[in-house]
Design a protein that fits this description.
single chain; about 400 residues; alpha/beta; 11 helices; 16 strands; about 30% helix; disordered C terminus
Length: about 400
C-alpha cells in the first residue's frame, strides 16, 4: 500500500470510495511480493501495480465492481486458473489479491497511518481477508509499538492479532496469519494480512569468520538486513557470505561511525562483534557502546572479555556504557559449532528484544508473550494468555 498511499489518501479525503487491491500471499514465481497494491479511484484512474502488468486489466474490472457492490473479495490469480492466460499471469506463479472498497467510513484510521509513514514511524495495518462472517471482511486494526487502534470484530481477536503483529512490525515484514473466528490462535477460519510500514532492521556482523557466516544466516532468517564487515579483503567476500545483503571491506569502527553519521543505524540495530582481536574490536566497541543500539555482543573467552573490559575502561567508557555489552556473546545453550553458536546469539537477541529470560516454557506458568498490548479503549489483554 505504500506506493499508492498518497493517491489513496487524497481520494479518500475528498469523500470518494476507492477500489484497492493488495497482494496478500504469493506462491512460486509470482511477479510482485506481498504488500504490492493497485488502486482504482472514482475517476477510473489506476495507480500502482500488483503484477507488473500481468493481471492489472482483470484487477481493474474487479476493483471497479467491488466499489459498486461494497463487498470485499479475495481473488486468486495463477497459471492453474481457468482464466490464467486471459489475464496474462503466465510466469508460473500464483498470487492472492484482496480487493476492498476504501473510504472514510471503511478505514477512518487511514490518515493516522499516512502520518506515521510520512514521519518514518513504525506502523502496521491488519486487514481481515477471510472470515466465516462476511461482516468481518475488510475490517482494519492499526498496530503501533505502543498499542493499537480500530477493531477486527472482538476484543479477543484484537489483542491476539496485535500481539502477533508486533514481531512482524519490528522486522518490517508483511504476511498472512490464521486464527479461529474469534481470534483463537489454534483455530482456523479467520485469515488476516499484516502490512508493516517500517524500515527493515539491521544486523551488523563484524569479523569475516566462519561464525559470521552462520550468524548472518540466522540474522537473515529473523528478518534483518545483514551487513558483514571486515578490514581484510581476502576474507570479506560475497562468495563467503552469500546470505548477507552487504559485504563491506573497511575497518569496523570506521564503517560503524560512518553509518551512524549517515543516519543508517537506529535503536533496532544489532551489532555482533566476532573479531576477538583487540585492534579491531576495542575501537569498534568504543563507538557502538556509546550509542543507542538494540544489542551489542562480542565474542571471546572470559579472559578475552576481562582484557577487553580493561581496555575499554582505559578508553574512557563508563560502567553504564559497559553494561550494554553482551560478552561472552549468546545464551548458555551448550553451543559448540558455528551454527549452534549462531542460534545462541540469535536467542539472546530475541530475549533482549522481548524481555524473555531464556527459561524453558515447560517450566513456567506465566504468560508466554511479554509486554501485552493494552489499549485504553479495548480493556484487558487477550484471554488465552498461555497459548503460543
Amino acid at each position: 500500500m505504500r506506493e499508492v498511499l498518497k493517491d489513496l489518501l487524497e481520494a479518500v479525503a475528498g469523500g470518494h470510495t476507492v477500489g484497492l487491491g493488495t497482494v496478500v500471499r504469493t506462491f512460486r514465481s509470482a511477479p510482485r511480493p506481498a504488500g504490492a497494491s493497485m488502486m482504482v479511484d472514482a475517476d477510473g484512474r489506476a495507480v500502482g501495480s500488483v503484477s507488473g502488468g500481468c493481471v492489472e486489466g482483470a484487477l481493474y474490472e474487479l476493483a471497479t465492481a467491488v466499489v459498486e457492490d461494497g463487498s470485499p473479495v479475495l481473488q486468486r490469480y495463477g497459471i492453474t486458473d481457468n482464466d490464467a492466460f486471459e489475464v496474462g499471469l503466465t510466469c508460473g506463479g500464483i498470487m492472492d489479491v484482496f480487493v476492498e472498497p476504501v473510504s472514510l467510513a471503511t478505514f477512518p484510521e487511514l490518515q493516522g497511518v499516512a502520518d506515521d509513514v510520512a514521519a518514518d514511524r513504525p506502523v502496521a495495518v491488519v486487514t481481515v481477508i477471510e472470515h466465516p462472517d462476511p461482516a468481518w471482511l475488510g475490517r482494519h486494526l492499526v498496530v503501533r509499538p505502543d498499542g493499537f487502534e480500530g477493531t477486527l470484530g472482538s476484543a479477543r481477536a484484537d489483542h491476539a492479532v496485535s500481539d502477533d503483529s508486533q514481531g512482524l512490525l519490528a522486522a518490517g515484514r508483511n504476511t498472512t496469519l490464521m486464527y479461529g473466528p474469534d481470534g483463537e490462535r489454534r483455530g482456523d477460519g479467520m485469515r488476516v494480512f499484516v502490512a508493516s510500514f517500517a524500515p527493515q532492521p539491521r544486523m551488523l556482523v563484524f569479523g569475516a569468520i566462519d561464525f559470521a557466516a552462520a550468524v548472518a544466516r540466522q540474522g537473515s532468517f529473523l528478518g534483518y538486513r545483514v551487513t558483514v564487515c571486515d578490514a581484510r579483503a581476502v576474507f570479506a567476500t560475497k562468495a563467503r557470505f552469500p546470505v548477507a545483503d552487504e559485504v563491506v571491506v573497511e575497518w569496523p569502527h570506521r564503517y560503524l561511525q560512518a553509518q551512524l553519521d549517515a543516519g543508517q543505524v537506529d535503536p533496532r540495530t544489532v551489532v555482533c562483534v566476532l573479531t576477538h582481536d583487540p585492534k579491531f574490536d576495542v575501537p569498534l566497541l568504543e563507538v557502538a557502546l556509546r550509542h543507542d543500539l538494540a544489542y551489542v555482543g562480542a565474542m571471546g573467552s572470559r579472559n578475552t572479555h576481562d582484557d577487553r573490559l580493561g581496555r575499554l575502561r582505559e578508553a574512557g567508557l563508563t560502567e553504564a556504557e559497559l553494561s550494554r555489552l553482551s560478552s561472552p556473546i549468546g545464551l548458555d545453550l551448550g553451543s559448540r559449532t558455528p551454527e549452534e553458536t549462531a542460534v545462541s546469539i540469535a536467542a539472546e537477541i530475541i530475549s533482549l528484544r522481548w524481555g524473555g529470560k531464556g527459561t524453558r516454557l515447560s517450566h513456567m506458568d506465566v504468560r508466554i508473550h511479554h509486554e501485552p498490548l493494552v489499549d485504553g479503549a479495548h480493556g484487558d489483554p487477550a484471554v488465552d494468555s498461555k497459548v503460543p
